[in-house]
Write a structure and sequence with these properties.
It comes from Funneliformis geosporum. Pathway: Protein modification; protein glycosylation. Its main location: endoplasmic reticulum. GO terms for molecular function: peptide-O-fucosyltransferase activity. The protein is α/β, with parallel strands linked by helices. The protein is built from 14 helices and 14 strands. It has helices spanning 2-68, 85-94, 96-102, 130-136, 145-154, 193-198, 226-238, 268-281, 299-317, 345-357, 370-374, 379-383, 387-397, 415-429, and strands at residues 75-81, 105-108, 111-112, 115-117, 142-144, 160-167, 184-187, 207-215, 245-250, 284-289, 321-326, 401-404, 439-441, 446-448. Helix 3 packs parallel to helix 7 and helix 13 runs parallel beside helix 14 (415-429). The radius of gyration is 36 Å and the shape is elongated.
Length: 449
């Protein structure tokens, strides 16, 4: 009996030992398994984090390759160009000097109402031939504002941006408080959200981290080498900028870069329309009458002098068709110039005298750009200055005989008239026998060759 009890206690003891040993093994295995799972989860988390970090980099490079053909994009965007089309054309093409110096893609702003800026309603190609511009500047890459905007929208992180402001010192305007005696560079004030909205910069996803001003200085602006010195000064200060985007707000009417005389070529639909007008009118006189800076009281007499000149030329030249290019508001209440604010009774009287005597043609009477004018989105373009001003310019260049106004009747020194004269001079030099003069001033019959 004692022996049986001893066996039972021994068996019970062995069972407990086995149970405890098994329990210990299970606990150790569980701890190891949990540690292994935690380690696996940690490794997975680290791998995901690395993917998260890599994904924006890969995306950034892929977007850049898509739009720029390289992993890193470098843009120069002159989003505001001063003055009306003829001078704006000159400012923009001169800025190609800077784009080439900085080796940056040049973004081309929108156009409308004879202006160039990112607020304008129509793409660059509404006025200009982008293909022709690329051929004109084969060493520069161009991108339209619309494509640049898409690039900014596709990036996950807003690209760092430098905002520059070109200021002409010595002008009597609101910026005179910051006039400098000599060309200089300084930090500019940061633009608040309302300013970014008014300048239409907020339509692009940009992180503008730096604002800089470039000043022409008052002294030395009129010197012969000013444009070269100013261009060199700006290029040297922007050469090492690492920001992918450089914005340019150009408020300087003074030429800041070396002049490129050949204009940016106009859009094919404008050239086509000008050719159609020429074929309808030939042979014809083109009269450019910019009334804006005339002496108003002299205008009726100016009209009478013009009539006498046309009558004389009809006898001597044998040309009867007349085309009138003018800033007088022939298509509505606004003049065809954004700087011609005050149209007075003398302007109206002069036009009545002319209209009652000469059967002249205009872009309105010839129904130019009929398809555009039927579309309401172009209403503002044709109610003031706009694409028809370019058409007037080309029509005058192609005219058999070109007339411009004498002193007191118009602005004598005009970029518009000067360009027409230069283009006509080139046509004559190149053997065009149809062009009979460069510029003749009516009334005085002064010829400018």
């Amino acid at each position: 009996m004692v022996k049986e009890k001893s066996v039972i206690r021994f068996q019970s003891f062995n069972f407990k030992r086995i149970f405890l040993l098994a329990l210990a093994v299970y606990i150790i295995w569980s701890i190891k398994l949990n540690l292994s799972n935690d380690e696996t989860l940690l490794l997975e988390k680290i791998s995901l984090n690395k993917l998260d970090e890599a994904e924006p980099i890969d995306h950034y490079e892929n977007v850049n390759i898509k739009y720029c053909g390289e992993k890193i994009c470098r843009f120069m965007f002159p989003y505001f160009i001063p003055e009306q089309e003829t001078r704006a054309n000159l400012h923009l093409r001169s800025l190609t000097y800077l784009a080439r110096s900085l080796n940056r893609i040049m973004v081309l702003p929108n156009v409308g109402n004879s202006r160039m800026n990112c607020c304008a309603p129509f793409p660059f190609e509404f006025y200009y031939d982008l293909k022709g511009m690329k051929e004109m500047f084969p060493n520069i890459t161009f991108m339209t504002q619309q494509t640049f905007q898409k690039w900014t929208k596709e990036l996950l992180i807003k690209p760092d941006t430098l905002h520059t402001w070109f200021i002409e010192d010595g002008r009597n305007d609101s910026y005179s408080i910051r006039d400098h005696e000599r060309m200089s560079i300084e930090k500019s004030e940061r633009y608040k959200s309302n300013a970014l909205r008014e300048l239409c910069i907020n339509q692009f996803n940009l992180n503008i981290s730096n604002y800089t001003e470039f000043h022409t200085g008052i002294k030395g602006v009129g010197s012969n080498n000013f444009q070269y010195n100013m261009a060199k000064f700006i290029a040297e200060n922007l050469q090492n900028v690492e920001s992918p985007v450089i914005l340019i707000r150009n408020r300087s009417r003074k030429q800041m870069f070396p002049k490129i005389m050949k204009p940016i070529p106009f859009a094919p639909h404008i050239i086509k329309q000008a050719t159609e007008l020429k074929n309808k009118l030939q042979p014809y006189y083109c009269i450019h009458w910019r009334m804006e800076q005339a002496i108003p009281t002299e205008l009726p007499e100016c009209a009478r002098k013009l009539i006498k000149t046309i009558d004389y030329l009809k006898k001597t030249e044998g040309i009867n068709s007349v085309y009138l290019a003018t800033d007088y508001p022939i298509s509505g209440s606004k003049s065809a110039s954004q700087t011609f604010y005050k149209v007075e009774k003398y302007h109206h009287e002069a036009m009545l005298i002319l209209n009652s005597t000469i059967n002249f043609n205009t872009w309105v009477s010839l129904n130019a750009f009929e398809e555009f004018r039927k579309d309401k989105k172009y209403d503002s373009e044709f109610s003031s200055s706009g694409i028809h001003g370019i058409l007037d310019k080309i029509t005058c260049i192609q005219a058999d005989y070109f007339l411009s106004g004498p002193r007191n009747c118009c602005r004598l020194q005009s970029s518009f008239t000067s360009l027409i004269g230069q283009e006509r001079r080139d046509l004559i030099t190149n053997g065009n026998k149809r062009i009979r003069n460069v510029i003749t001033r009516w009334g005085t019959m002064e010829r400018i060759d």
